[in-house]
Design a protein that fits this description.
Blueprint: E1 12-16, H1 21-32, E2 36-41, H2 44-56, E3 60-65, H3 71-85, E4 90-93, H4 109-137, E5 140-145, H5 158-178, E6 183-190, H6 196-204, H7 207-215, H8 225-236, E7 247-250
Parallel strand pairs: 1-2, 1-4, 2-3, 4-5, 5-6, 6-7
This protein binds nicotinamide-adenine-dinucleotide.
Length: 257
């Protein structure tokens, strides 16, 4: 796949959930564009693997172990980024989880709270601690991860869908609030992408349902994480200066199908 040339040398990017899936792909793409990258993940082995992949390709990265559902971990994560690189230009607030789909009347309370903590409170915490660094240095760009479920009705995934609507709402508030301070905040809403989430789902779904996950995409296949990373990195780049508080459907048109 060809890539647009984007120069991020001298800049610093943070990717949460950078150990696998879309986070790993965007961490590698930020590094390929010349940014120094902080890869944050709760999974140490995978996070270190991403760091090593970036180093092997000639880039610069550190790994930070952080559970972004925890306020103290997020504060410490940002502290480690600043200690290592003295700035934070780009943040891809990407880490998230999806669990079993139960109807609302059967959804266990702890599953609701876990999903909201990992997918929504986490983004609030990241914004809360990333923005002061960006304000102090005069600007930055942030990409949060919503989901195609913010466009379409969905009979399952109550907690997941609510969490991703929350991410989109937070994105509009942050984008408008900090626009004059030179911080842009956008969201992406991916369709089905070949990552840990879809690998785990396809491993247990009946073959016909698994196949349908691919065929339901207008393009007729899962998107590759690298295809999403292109959008994330472009949104952070100076080329996207006009784009703020916007949600990008990265789903080949599924949201209008
Ligand atoms: N894969 C899809 O089809 C799809 C579609 C729409 C949205 N998304 C969203 O994309 C984002 C990335 O997911 P993915 O598909 O790449 O999944 P993935 O499972 O491949 O990767 C997620 C990464 O996040 C990490 N992580 C999870 N919870 C964490 C936490 N509390 N703290 C730190 N790290 C944590 C995991 O260890 C993992 O490395 C998620 O927010 C997900 O909801 C995925």
């Amino acid at each position: 796949m060809t890539s647009v040339a984007i120069d991020m040398s001298g800049r610093v990017a943070l990717v949460t959930g950078g150990g696998y899936g879309m986070g790993r792909a965007s961490a590698r793409r930020f590094a390929a564009c010349g940014a120094r990258v902080a890869v944050a993940d709760v999974d140490e082995a995978r996070g270190e693997e991403t760091r090593d992949l970036i180093a092997e390709a000639g880039g610069e990265a550190i790994f930070i172990r952080a559970d972004i559902s925890r306020a103290d971990d997020v504060q410490d994560m940002i502290g480690q980024v600043v200690a290592a690189y003295r700035r934070l230009d780009y943040a891809h607030n990407n880490a998230g989880i999806i669990e079993d789909q139960s109807p609302i009347h059967e959804l266990p309370d702890d599953q609701w709270h876990r999903t909201i903590a990992n997918n929504l409170t986490s983004v609030f915490l990241c914004l809360k601690h990333e923005i002061p660094v960006m304000l102090a240095q005069g600007g930055g760009a942030i990409v949060n991860v919503a989901s195609e479920t913010t466009y379409k009705g969905n009979v399952g995934d109550a907690a997941y869908t609510a969490s991703k609507h929350g991410v989109w709402g937070l994105t509009t508030v942050a984008g408008l609030r900090y626009a004059k301070r030179n911080i842009r905040v956008n969201a992406i809403a991916p369709g089905n992408v070949r990552t840990g989430i879809t690998e785990r789902a396809q491993a247990v779904l009946p073959p016909e349902v698994s196949e349908r996950m691919e065929q339901i995409q207008p393009i007729g296949r899962l998107l590759e994480p690298e295809e999403i990373a292109e959008l994330v990195v472009w949104l952070c780049s100076d080329q996207a200066i006009a784009v703020n508080a916007t949600r990008f459907a990265a789903d080949t048109g599924w949201h209008v199908a």
